[in-house]
Structures are given as C-alpha cells and as structure tokens.
Specification:
The protein is α+β, with helices and mostly antiparallel strands and about 130 residues long. It has one domain: Nucleoside Triphosphate Pyrophosphohydrolase (Alpha-Beta Complex), CATH 3.90.79. Helix content is about 15%, strand content about 40%. It contains two helices and seven strands; from the N terminus they run ββββαβββα. It has helices spanning about 50-60, 120-130, and strands at about 5-15, 20-25, 35, 40, 65-75, 80-95, 105-110. Strands 4-1-6-5 form a four-stranded mixed β-sheet, covered by helices on one side. A hairpin with a 2-residue loop joins strand 5 and strand 6 (about 80-95). The longest helix has 13 residues, at about 50-60. The chain starts with a strand and ends with a helix. The structure holds 8-OXO-2'-deoxyguanosine-5'-triphosphate (8DG) and magnesium ion (MG). Magnesium ion binds near residues 55 and 59.
Length: about 130
C-alpha cells in the first residue's frame, strides 16, 4: 500500500431541526455504496476550510458560512490511507441538492447508526451520538 495519506475535508452539516446531512457514495468510488458526510480531497496548496467549502458547494449546493473543527481521524483501509479532517458546519446558505446524482438525506442524530458508513467514520459517529442532548 502506498504510504501517501489522502487528506480529506469532511463536513458534518446540521440543519436548524438538528438533523445531519449524509450522502451515499457511488458504487464505483472508493468505499462505494456506503453513506458519508459530504466532502472530498484537499488539493495541493489549498486550506482545509477552503476544500470543505468548495466540496460542499460542488456536491451538495451548500454554502458554508460558519464551521468549527470537530476531529481528525487517520484510518488505513486495505487499499488507501486517509486523514479525515472533520468540521462541524453550524450555519450555511442554500437548499441541499445531490449535484452529482447521489442519494442524500437529512437524518436525526440518533438514527445515524442505521446507515452503513466506511470504517474510518466510526469515531465521528461515536462523537455525534455522544453530543446529543
Ligand atoms: N467525503 C467523505 N469521504 C470519506 C468519509 N469517510 C471516508 O472514509 N472517506 C474517504 C473515502 C475516500 O477515500 C476519501 C474521500 O474522497 P472523495 O472520493 O470523496 O474525494 P472527492 O470528493 O475529492 O472526489 P473525486 O473528485 O476525487 O472523485 O475519504 C466521509 O465521511 N466523507
Ligand atoms: Mg467527495
């Protein structure tokens, strides 16, 4: 396996109803068919916050206006290492849309564990479930 770590900006977007935005990875993608928090690779020379804003706009029509770092997770899949730089998006403009044709949903926090996510997401899910009032 390559020792290169893929740096990924990941957004946990919460709406005023307290629901969280999840989307489904396409079958052909790495960790295909699993659910994810929208986001994508940080490009060379780009800040994580910029990548987060760019990816959420490109994938979900969400314009980030307020965000805060939540956690950073390093995970090695059999074929790829990732660093998930996870941000909580607490304010945004725009209506969510699957701009890449992907399925997406607003989900109540306590229902997040009903959706299959990549193994690297386990610590994020634990954090979010622990945060609920
Ligand atoms: N966006 C996102 N990626 C995740 C999550 N969990 C997880 O392991 N990943 C992994 C899967 C991929 O290997 C990588 C993200 O890459 P990506 O395919 O979304 O990147 P991208 O949006 O820039 O897409 P592309 O243009 O390269 O196809 O991080 C998650 O919750 N959200
Ligand atoms: Mg992506």
């Amino acid at each position: 396996m390559s020792t290169k770590v893929v740096h990924v900006a990941v957004g946990v977007v919460e709406n005023p109803a307290g629901e969280i935005l999840i989307s489904r990875r396409a079958a052909h993608q790495h960790q295909g068919n699993l659910w994810e928090f929208p986001g994508g690779k940080v490009e060379a020379g780009e800040s994580v916050q910029h990548a987060l804003a760019r990816e959420l706009l490109e994938e979900m029509n969400i314009e980030v206006t307020e965000c805060a770092p939540l956690t950073v997770i390093e995970h090695a899949y059999p074929d790829k290492r990732v660093r998930l730089d996870v941000w909580q998006v607490t304010a945004f403009n725009g209506q969510a849309k699957g701009l890449e044709g992907q399925e997406w949903l607003w989900v109540a926090r306590r229902e997040l564990d009903a959706y299959p996510f990549p193994a690297g997401n386990v610590p994020i899910l634990e954090r979010l479930l622990a945060q609920q009032p």
